[in-house]
Write a structure and sequence with these properties.
This protein is 13% helix and 38% strand. With 129 residues, the protein is mainly beta. The mean pLDDT is 94.
Length: 129
């Protein structure tokens, strides 16, 4: 029996003026009200960079450029693996379409929100200085 492949999920640590954008989930119920780096699943034949640009356009209505990827990957539920890129907005302003709120957080405010467990390890690698 062949083991199932792990699907890729990408998140964006969108940084502007020393702050990072956090988005509050509305679903599934166990994640509703918690905060994450916006993003989503990489589709078949799509690169991680292209998926992230597409997901941010769909979720926040703005365009981003990717500046690099944070180290590490986090398993989500045994079927997915999350990686997070540092990105910057190049067009538009973020407006939540799939989340119920977004917040810009400075380094000393990162603990002010309840991050999803999968996103937490990436916070230590953010350079908001």
């Amino acid at each position: 029996m062949k083991p199932s492949a792990t699907a890729a999920v990408v998140g964006a640590a969108i940084v502007r003026d020393g702050r990072v954008l956090a988005a509050r989930r509305t679903s599934p119920p166990e994640s509703a009200g918690r905060w994450e780096f916006p993003g989503g699943k990489v589709e078949s034949g799509e690169t991680s960079d292209a998926a992230l640009v597409r997901e941010i356009r769909e979720e926040l209505g703005c365009m981003v450029a990717i500046d690099g990827w944070l180290p590490g990957a986090v398993a989500i539920g045994g079927s997915y693996s999350l990686t997070v890129a540092v990105a910057r907005i190049v067009a538009g302003d973020p407006s939540p379409h799939e989340h119920d709120a977004v917040r810009w957080l400075a380094a000393d405010e990162l603990d002010d929100v309840d991050w999803l467990d999968a996103d937490r390890p990436f916070l230590a690698h953010l350079d908001l200085g």
